[in-house]
Structure formats: C-alpha cells, structure tokens
Design a protein that fits this description.
single chain, 427 residues, mainly alpha, 0% strand
Length: 427
Amino acid sequence: MIETSLLLGSFLVLILIGVPIAFALGISALLTASYTGLGPAMIVQRVGAGMQSFPLLAIPLFILAGAIMAKGGVARRIVDFAYIIVGPFPGGLAMVNCIDSMFFGGVSGSAVADISSTGPIMIPMMVQKGYDREFATALTVASSTQGIIIPPSHNMVIYAMVAGGVSIGKLFLAGYLPGFLMGGLLAVTCYFMALKRGYPREKRPPFRESLVIARDGLLSIFAAVIIVGGIAFGIFTATEASAVAVFYAAFLGLVVYREMRVRDLWPIFVDSVKTTAIVMLLIGCASGFAWMMTFLHVPTLVTQIFLSISDKPVVILFLINILLLFLGAIMDVAPLIVIVTPVLLPVVQAAGMNPVTFGIVLMVNMAVGLTTPPVGAGLFVGCTVGKTTMEKCTRSMLYLWPAMLIVLILTTYVSWMTTLLPDWIMP
C-alpha cells in the first residue's frame, strides 16, 4: 500500500502543481520504481517498449491524413453535402453541424481536427443565421466527439494495443452504431431547440448543383469506406489502411479538388510530426506508469474493490462509467486509455462485458470528457475557434449532454449495439 500510495499520490501532486501530464506520469513511475528497488532503468525500458509497437505506426499516419483532409477542402465539401441532406428542416444549419461531424469523423478520426476544420465554417455561418454563438460553439464541440467513436479513430488503435489482442477491425466496426446514434440524437435535440427558439430552415440548392455537391461529398466520405472496408475484409492491416488514407487524402486535395499545392504539404508534415511527438510521449510515459500499477497488483485490488461493493454487473458498470466520466474531465484521452485499460478491463470482463464493447464504452466516456471542463481538449479548442469563453459554452453544453449520456447508457447496457456489425462482417 505504501508503494501504491506513493505512485498515485505523487502523480496527483504533480498534476496539481501544474506539471505536464506526460512528465507527471513518468516522474511518479520513476519515484515508485526507485523506492521499490526496481530502479529507474526498468521504467525507461517500459516507456520505450510502450512506443515500440507496430500498430502504433497507424497513429501518425491517421493524424497526417486528417490534417491533409482539413487543408485540402474535404471539410467544406462534407459540410455542403450535409447541407443538402438536412438543411431544409427546422434548425437545419444546426443539424448540418451534427451530420457533417458524423461524416468528417469517419474520415479524420479526430475530434480536434473536426473542430479546427469545420468550426471556422459552421460557427460564423450559424451566428449569421441568428443562432447564439455559445450554442453554435457548444454544438460544434459536442458533435465533433463522434471523431473518436466513428472509425478510423487512432484512440481505438491505442486501446487495441493496450488491451492486447483486440481486433482493430472489430473495434472500428463496433463504433459505427454508437457514433451514428450520437449524431442522430444531437440532431434531434437541435430540431426541438429550433422549434422552441425559432431557428430558421435552409433552402436546398438547385438540383444540378446538389448533384455536384453530393458527388464531391461522397468522394470525401469514400475514404472511410476504403479504410474500414479494407481492414474488415482483410485487404490490408490498420497500419496499411492509414497509409492508404494519406495517399487518398493527398489525391483529393492535390488532384481532384485542387485546393492544395505540393508546397502546402511541408507545413502539414511539420504540424503532424509535432502532434505525433506529443501523443507518443504521452503513450510511452503512460505505459511506464501502467506497468508500475500492474507490478503493484493495482488491477487486482481494483477488481476486488468493485466486486466487494456489488456483485451485480449493472451496478459495477454504472460505477465504472462514473469513474471514467470523472477521469475524463481531468485527463487527456491517450494517457487515460493507457492507464485505465489494464486496470478496468479485468473488472468489466468479470462483469460479463467483452473487450470490444468496453473499448467503445471507453471511447464514449472519453467523448463526453472532451466536452467537460477543466481539461476538455475539445471544449478548449472550440472556445478558441468560436471566440467565446469556456463558462458560456459550458452552459450551452447542458442542452447537449443528455443526448451523449443516453448513448453512453445504451452502449454500456445494450450489447448488440457494439457486437452486431463485428459479428456480422468479421465473425
């Protein structure tokens, strides 16, 4: 208990005094290893081993593909495609915000990329049409979280690596129904808010123009079909799929849409390398921290604690969701996945949940965490793009959180939502 208290206590203290989370994870693991006599070399080895995984090669490539799509005009064409589908409904522009994030999440795999690329388009457009700036920003943040649920999500790749042996293809397929449900429920919320507040309908473009918009939009969305379909049917691995995504995104931006030039690729490469370095450092330090917890038998202790509270799976899964929602509000997605997966996976398996379902439950919890203060990355980026404060945006999030929590409850307790597509396509 002394070693466990030192590990967790030092981590919390470092976080409270403002140490970056990656360094806090690494320092607390090093301190505990030194106290137990293992020595710092063991933690350094685990940090290196955590980053030396072949499936992790998919992460920088998916990040690069998302960046190219954001720069190459994919985001704008997806917005236009969503416009002709749901624009004529009451609150159509708000519903466009939900649907375009559903489509863009299926090609970028990143909530932050979604906010950064569609936010500058949608938020000013909604404000001009009479929507509250805070609601437009909050909706952009909430809908963007579909990016980590609908594949290809690089956070699913991280979970598959940490969980050990979980099929990335099955995880990708399992994310579709919960992701689409979240987008649908957010759109329904916008519909009723439009009726209450008098938000306008939008006019659909002329037929021929709509056909051109639909063609360009489907070309953009086809990236998701290539990636997930190729993995599901065994044409290529997740890592190879990420490389295909990069080439397809570059082909759209440079050749089809012609909104990029070859010289535009260099700054995209630089930004992607910076993002990848941050993510990989977090994964490495979190891997060392997670190994230290496993060495101290923390997963076994946590399992015993949950089972001592109740032996009913419904209660255990409810408590785990509460824990994940709290942790998601104070930690970033990647390190949280690496830390909690080895601790909580044995608990949920004891409660009868399979690893694929738990992976999606974890993603939905992280999606909610992206929208909650004080550390919600999506909320922070959204407020910057929307030019509003976190406090005002959070008040508008109160209208949108119920839809997200309904998806979380259904994903947790209705097992076929996450098993239907994987069992059908990849039995």
